[in-house]
Every structure is written in structure tokens, then in C-alpha cells.
Amino acid sequence: MRHKLIASILIALALPGCLAAAAGVGAGIIFSQEMDANTYTYFLEKDADVVWATAKASLSHQATEIIEPDEDLRTVTARIDNADVVVSVELHDLDRCALRVSARKFGVANGELAEMVIDEIVRDLER
Questions:
Q1: Measured CA distances, 97 to 19, 61, 78 (Å)
Q2: Is the pLDDT assigned to residue 96 strictly greater than 70?
Q3: CATH topology of domain 28-126
């Protein structure tokens, strides 16, 4: 048991920062993730309708202004910490979807905020 714990710690230290953080957040529902141009994408083993409803609810709690959802495209725009945040949910398969979050503050991509928002949505999904 002690060897497994040590091995787990060593593996976590060897992983890149965002991957290590995601390993602790949502480990039960995330089956893949990627980060491209400050857009965070988590591929989830959850129904897209559930993820969409949770994403809107989570974003409405995080936002400083009223969120603007587009039900047809499953995209929602919000203002968080003076940044424009865009969240989208894409259906991939039965009980599998992609959750994408990007953030721009003063016209500049803000990957740190996007990561915080997506992690909060995943935490809300696990509740």
C-alpha cells in the first residue's frame, strides 16, 4: 500500500500542472482533456443535457452579470471578473460530450480563468 501511495505521488509530480489539477478534479467523469489556444476542453462521460444544465447553473453563480445562453448551439456567454467567458457543450456519443471553456480579459486570452471556470463546472457536476 505504501508503495502505491509513493508511486501515485511521483506520477502526480511528473504530470504537467493542468493535468495534475484535473486528475484531482472530476477524476470519475473526465475521460480525456486538452488545452488549445487557452481553450480548455474536457471530454466527459456524462449526458450532454445534464452537462449543459449544470454548466448554465454553475456559470450563473460565477458570473457578475446575467448569462446569455444559446439553447440551440449549447453555448453560453458570461462576464466573470471583467472577462468574457464562453462555455459550450458538444454531444459526442451517448453519455459522452465535450465541455469547452475559453476566457478573454481586455481582449487577451486568459487560460487561468478558463481553467478555474471549467474546474468549477466539473465540481458542480460531481455534486
A1: 19, 22, 21
A2: yes
A3: Alpha-D-Glucose-1,6-Bisphosphate; Chain A, domain 4 (3.30.530)
